[in-house]
Design brief:
The complex is a heterodimer of chains A (216) and B (460). Chain A has 216 residues and is of the alpha/beta class. Helix content of chain A is 31%, strand content 15%. Chain B has 460 residues and is an alpha/beta fold. In chain B, the strands form five sheets. Chain B has a five-stranded parallel beta sheet, with helices on both faces. In chain B, strands 17-16-15-18-19 form a five-stranded parallel beta sheet. Chain B has a four-stranded parallel beta sheet with strand order 11-10-9-12. The chains are: A alpha/beta (216), B alpha/beta (460). The complex binds iron/sulfur cluster (SF4).
Chain lengths: 216, 460
């Protein structure tokens, strides 16, 4: 996984709460057996005027001009600003895959659904939780100007713009450690192989029936 | 010393190690696998030259994409066909137990798990699917995970997790007849909101929950995720133990005795404390119909659709509803009885009772019943339920997720209005532009007969 340290970029404001994973990447695209290529279908139903299906050439599809990602000033955005309970619904990791594939590196929201939040970290995407007041302030800033740019410093846990906006944010230290060092979580867990084996033997002694293999 | 909650007990029994920063390594007893969220996990294993740690601790079955009719013709959509083929191939390669489409035991992963005894009380259970919460009804810690975590569990049999907080939702008293588990859980979600349980594991308790069958408890836990909680739990009691008895993969003989005595400890201690506690009265709960595009936007069948405040505007517009009208004023186009929330044998029995001897309203374009598994289907046929449905004008299909998420051919056309026993009413969930109202199986059956929503209690 790529290391994450400083993210610098334009903020795209998506002014909605409860954005669910099906809005992020509609189910028809979940039939893919790959983990890349979902970017053109991110927010598909909001972004295009026609109905999207896998395999379509998205560059020819009619755009919904009102949708934030279709507006000129948010081209090349790297930071998604949204509201509460972002990523609710299904566990599909296709949601963060699509967000990353589109080019986003960080999300700013007042809360996230648990599974989505977890999935972001596995894909080098930084979901930051900010208070509702700060989220509101950022929405106001974004609507006052054509677009705002922010710098997110993960190591220092600071977000700032080139003017007076500067705030700190919280993040779990293990997750930060993995992001900053670009660590593969499975590799990390495998370091504890002996602890797992010891646990497994005692678990087996206590609950032997859990170790019967399923045979179809 | 304060006692432990059921969640604490399950967590502690699976704790491999703790980190100073509060993230734990948790041992996973069972992983369920389906076609949509697993191909990239297997690809990851392959890429890193890793093998499953305990292949036989997994169980795979295809459900999301699978057709619900004319199966003998194969899968028409080549993209779906490839995904299902890939699941079979991956299971072959990595020696993962797999129930193929042709097998009578095939069905929705959350119906198949308990039915086969592949999911048991006291287990930690994961699946790349948010409705894994369902299995919490057995007194297991079960939660949905993403694809990277699927790969993580395959490779290590463990997951890095942070412990959630404890919430207790207690439903006291008694439900009125024809008020169901679905109405209970929709009422809970309407009360606490779709993010109300975020960061918590919810234990459901109280007289109403105790009085429920295991199937009904699964309906409640299934939708814990719709209240934002990754896991829902219900304490083990005699019903749980009776339910597990003789399930194909449940422990046998000596193992059964050991398991039974362990399972009997799987309740929250009376002295346990919860971070949050919510109490409802069962007799206040009325049949529910969701009117919006989030499961929390639900109303009692006799209540009016709420007024347009700005927050509701999107939902009302999308759903084609007017404020202050009654939900019964709107004609329905389709009826869907199925999904991991409500496709078990009891659901079908209940719905059949309402339908028996009646006809689906002529204005309904399609009414369908999709049993949760091949075995549910067989059982229903043995009881003659298929005839009841077919005589009334319902289609009787093969098991799968079907129109719960419309990844296969079963879906709503834009603007179509559907009474659905599934769990999500998000925009486009059942097909682009489709309008979903979540209800119980008996409410869906009553709606099929009338062509619009009615209070099921008034027609029986
Ligand atoms: S029935 Fe619906 S909710 Fe359940 S697993 Fe299938 S798609 Fe998910």
């Amino acid at each position: 996984m790529k290391k994450v340290s400083i993210i610098n970029g334009i903020v795209a404001p998506l002014d909605r709460s409860n954005v669910d994973t099906d809005a992020i990447i509609p189910k028809q695209f979940l039939k893919s057996i790959k983990r890349s290529g979902f970017g053109p279908n991110l927010f598909d139903e909001w972004r295009y005027l026609d109905h999207g299906e896998p395999g379509m050439d998205c560059s020819n599809r009619p755009l919904n001009k009102d949708f934030v990602l279709n507006q000129k000033q948010f081209e090349n955005t790297k930071i998604l600003l949204t509201r509460s309970n972002f990523g609710c619904g299904s566990s599909r990791e296709h949601a963060p895959w699509a967000i990353v594939d589109y080019g986003f590196r960080a999300i700013l929201a007042s809360s996230y659904a648990d599974i989505f939040y977890n999935n972001c970290f596995k894909n080098g995407l930084l979901p930051i939780i900010l208070s509702e007041e700060i989220i509101e302030e950022l929405f106001t800033l974004s609507s006052d100007q054509l677009s705002i740019s922010l710098e997110i410093d993960l190591e220092k846990q600071i977000i700032q713009d080139s003017n007076n906006f500067k705030i700190s944010f919280e993040i779990d230290s293990y997750r930060k450690y993995c992001l900053v060092n670009g660590l593969d979580e499975i590799g990390q867990t495998l370091k504890y192989e002996s602890a797992i084996s010891i646990f497994e033997s005692s678990h087996k002694e206590k609950y032997p029936w859990l170790f019967k293999e399923i045979k179809i | 010393m304060a006692g432990k909650t059921l969640y604490d007990k399950l967590w502690d029994a699976h704790l491999v190690r703790s980190d100073e920063n509060g993230s734990d390594l948790l041992y996973i007893d069972r992983q369920l696998i389906h076609e949509v969220t697993s191909p990239q996990a297997f690809a990851g294993l392959r890429m890193n030259h890793r093998l499953p740690r305990r292949a036989g601790a997994n169980l795979a079955v295809a459900d999301h994409n699978i057709p619900t009719k004319d199966r003998e013709k194969g899968i028409e959509d080549p993209v779906s066909a490839l995904q299902i083929q890939t699941l079979g191939d991956n299971c072959d390669e990595f020696k993962i137990p797999y129930i193929p489409m042709e097998d009578a035991r095939q069905g929705i992963v959350h119906v198949v798990g308990p039915e086969q005894g592949a999911t048991l009380p006291g287990m930690t259970i994961v699946c790349g699917d948010s409705h894994t919460a369902t299995h919490g009804a057995l007194g297991a810690l079960a939660f949905g995970i993403g694809t990277s975590e699927v790969e993580h569990v395959l490779a290590t049999q463990c997951l890095v997790q942070k412990k959630m907080k404890n919430m207790l939702i207690q439903v006291d008293g008694k439900l009125e007849k024809w008020v169901t588990a679905k109405d209970v859980v929709l009422t809970i979600i309407a009360k606490i909101g779709t993010a109300g349980g975020t960061g918590y594991t919810i234990e459901f308790a109280g007289q109403v929950i105790s009085a429920m069958s295991i199937e009904e408890r699964m309906t409640v836990c299934n939708m814990a995720i719709e209240a934002g909680a990754r896991a829902g739990l219900i304490a083990v009691d005699q019903k749980t133990i009776d339910y597990m008895k003789d399930k194909p993969f449940a422990p046998k003989n000596e193992d059964w005795k050991l398991a039974e005595s362990y399972w009997n400890t799987l309740t929250s201690d009376t002295s346990a404390s919860f971070d949050k506690k919510i109490i409802l009265n069962g007799s206040d709960i009325q049949p529910q119909v969701t009117w919006g595009t989030s499961p929390e936007l639900s109303l009692n069948i006799h209540d009016k659709i709420p007024r347009k405040n700005p927050e509701y505007l999107n939902a009302l517009t999308y759903m084609g509803l007017n404020e202050s009208t009654s939900i019964s004023d709107y004609l329905l186009d389709k009826i869907f009885i199925g999904s991991c929330t409500n496709s078990r044998i009891e659901d079908l029995r209940d719905a059949a009772q309402i339908v028996k001897g009646k006809k689906v309203a002529s204005t309904i374009k399609l009414a369908m019943v999709v049993p949760g598994s091949g075995l549910v289907k067989k059982q229903a046929e043995a009881e003659g339920l298929d005839r009841v449905f077919k005589d009334a004008g319902f289609e009787w299909r093969d098991p799968g997720c079907s129109m719960c998420l419309a990844m296969n051919a079963d879906r709503l056309a834009p603007g179509e209005r559907c009474a659905s026993t599934s769990n999500r009413n998000f925009e486009g969930r059942q097909g682009q532009g489709g309008r979903t109202h979540l209800v119980s199986p008996v409410m869906a059956a009553a709606a099929a007969i009338n062509g619009y929503f009615v209070d099921v209690r008034e027609i029986v």
